[in-house]
Design goal:
single chain; 491 residues; mainly alpha; two-stranded antiparallel ribbon; two-stranded antiparallel sheet; 20 helices; globular; purine nucleobase transmembrane transporter activity; Transporter; cell membrane
Length: 491
């Protein structure tokens, strides 16, 4: 029995309507669309002494570049551990890594604004992970997700589609920030990078519409090659980068340039000695104030719980995994992979690990089993040998996939009962709030809070369960904690 047949049998590939070749291509596609985190996560988490006001992980006796180098290795290991668990335990095609946004909350809010030692912040993430493992093991997380109102479940996919699209358009330089209108069209004609991205986007859409196998991966590859050629002729600067929104800050990523044994954008050699980070969370338990620590754990927990739930349901909808009630069968298994990843990541020295919405790119390429996740994990591990390989594809090329998938995911909107106002309002709130707040959790929250209110207004009291009322109240409490300054007042 050959390797291909062994893999097909182990992951039950053929019974999922897929092939080993399709799963491998899907894994490569997912990896390329999420590999930016290898650079972004260390840039956000490491305290940069050259930029006043930045906060995060700083280790006495080690330079900023050295800390970044450690965090690159930790990011790759945490992503690999979580995604391997997803592959072998859950057999689902989802990639995992330290979450963008959650890392910004870790560095800029908890460590920065609140002045909490980074070791204590890691301890909070570790506790969050243990809670997730416990709640997943007893079925509590699955039970909570099942009581999501149906219009919210049906709207998550479309909301994530819009979220992916705005992330992708930003990464390509097509949409930029504006002080007057928040967002606006970039100066496309005068920006060579944006021109390359637009050409690549339409080339990918054409390939996709023509039903060319591996169209998204081909589009990324063509755009990367075009960018590289223009870089050689001096049309695109070797260090041309575009920003990725990350909470209250942004991080520039390098375009495709020379490949060497340094971390792109830092000039720092990769170091595999992560002992100053690994296990540092243990010291974070000393001298903590119980209530303040609980609030931090609560915030990490809440955001990650509903981000992951939304991603699994939304991407599962694209893959056709959901049942008639809008539930993902055996969701406890991918949830456990997420919990294990978060716990292992905190122990290694990084912020919360979560399931990536970029997994939709691989799913759209046909990935249906854990073999897709295995390919993603192996590519993260392979990147340990030569870190720049993980970032050789420029952001403007990889984010083409997000726009394409974002457009495709809009078709999920037909699953919503738009002729029922008690479905229209919570579904519409879920879809709109996700991209505008840059948060899957906030989108779900707005839908869940509005659902019982409109049901009561319509006189349909019996349609709202006690669990749905409890979720709505829980989200209200979360918003009070997160936006009222309570965290700052208590820490």
């Amino acid at each position: 029995m050959g390797l291909s047949e062994t893999l097909a049998n182990y992951f039950d590939v053929h019974n999922h309507g897929s092939t080993v070749r399709t799963e491998v291509l899907a894994g490569i596609t997912t990896f390329l669309t999420m590999s930016y985190i290898v650079v972004v996560n260390p840039s956000i988490l490491a305290e940069n002494p050259n930029i006043p006001g930045t906060d995060g992980i700083g280790i006495p006796g080690y330079s900023f570049g050295e800390v970044q180098a450690m965090l690159v290795v930790v990011t790759l290991l945490a992503a690999a551990i979580a995604t391997l668990t997803m592959a072998f335990y859950a057999n689902r095609p989802f990639g995992q890594a330290p979450g963008l946004g959650l890392n910004a909350f870790f560095a800029f809010t908890v460590v920065g604004a609140l002045g909490v030692p980074w070791q204590t912040a890691l301890a909070a993430v570790f506790v969050e992970g243990l809670l997730f493992i416990l709640l997943t093991a007893i079925g509590a997380r699955e039970a909570i997700i099942k009581i999501f109102p149906q219009p919210v479940k049906m709207a998550v996919g479309t909301g994530i589609g819009l979220f992916l699209a705005i992330i992708g358009l930003q990464g390509m330089g097509i949409v930029v920030d504006d002080t007057a209108t928040l967002v606006t069209l970039g100066n496309l004609a005068s920006n060579p990078v944006a021109i390359v991205a637009v050409v690549g986007l339409f080339a990918t859409l054409i390939l996709y519409a023509a039903d060319v196998p591996g169209s998204i991966l081909l589009g990324i590859a063509l755009t990367t090659v075009l960018g590289w050629v223009l870089t050689q002729f001096g049309i695109v600067a070797p260090d041309a980068g575009l920003v990725v929104a990350a909470g209250t800050t942004s991080v520039s990523l390098p375009a495709l340039g020379a490949v060497d044994l340094v971390i792109p954008g830092t000039g720092s050699a990769v170091t595999y000695d992560i002992t100053p980070l690994a296990g540092a969370f243990v010291s974070g338990f000393s001298n903590i104030e119980a209530f303040s620590f609980a609030l931090i754990v609560f915030t990490f927990f809440f955001v990650d719980f509903f981000d992951t739930a939304g991603t699994l349901v939304g991407v599962g909808q694209v893959a056709g995994f959901l049942d008639d009630n809008g539930d993902l069968p055996d969701i406890d298994k991918p949830l456990m992979a997420d919990a294990v990843g978060t716990t292992a990541g905190a122990a290694l020295g990084t912020s919360t690990v979560t399931t990536y919405i970029e997994s939709a790119a691989g799913v759209e390429e046909g990935g249906r089993t854990g073999l897709t996740a295995l390919v993603v994990a192996l590519l993260f591990l392979a990147s340990l040998a030569l870190v720049p390989l993980a970032t050789a594809v420029p952001l403007y090329a990889s984010h083409i996939a997000l726009v394409v998938i974002g457009v495709v995911m809009l078709q999920n909107v037909v699953d919503i009962a738009w002729d029922d106002i008690t479905h229209t309002i919570p579904a519409g709130m879920t879809i709109l709030v996700m991209p505008f707040t840059y948060s899957i959790a906030y989108g779900i929250a707005s839908g869940i809070i509005s659902y019982p209110l409109v049901k009561v207004a319509a006189g349909e009291y019996d349609d709202v369960s006690a669990g749905q009322w409890a979720l709505a109240v829980a989200f209200l409490i979360y918003f009070v904690v997160r936006t009222s300054g309570m965290l700052q007042a208590q820490v």
